[in-house]
Fold Iron ABC transporter ATP-binding protein.
Amino acid sequence: MSASSAVLRRSAVIALALGSLTLTACAPPVGPDSAPSASESSSPTTSGVPPADEHRESPDDTATAPPNSTKNPDAGEDVGLGCDDVITLQQMYDFNPNVSALGEFSPAAGTPAAKVASYNGLTCRWSNNTSGRTIDVSIAKLAPQTLDDLAAEADAAGESVTTYGEKGFFSHTSGLGTAQIFTSTYWIVISSKDFSDSRGAEQLAQFVLGNLP
């Protein structure tokens, strides 16, 4: 091999070595230290914690409960009487000796007695021993404004009856006669299918009013 050939070969080896070093320097590093930093990641987060704006309250979180829409929110007071106090056994015997006391009862939904019961009222029942027809007497102890509201409803649904007291009304619906009496403290409802007109409940209304404290 001539001296010139040797020089050329040495130069080629050196060029190849330099080229390999250049390529190595340009290649991206690998290994545990080569992972991109959090600031270089395209993901909003790398910890699984949602971004801050996802913690904002939704409209449902701040919604408030609707206001109380009950027309007469008065809960009513304990009447403090028993059925034998409302109408005594002797008084009911004087009214009709063929009637027996059944005591307190659970009124059917939608009846005046059920509304009295919803105001923490007392509901009492007697039954005719022959016909099986009942007489219901219900009493609630309420605030004056509630009594005024209920009296206005009774007035709109029936006729005024002066013999029942200061505020008395009678209505007859679906074969059921109902007397409603209002004092400064009590709401009294007397109902029976035996009451075809206001006079049917008149004596019982006077008994109840006379027995109230």
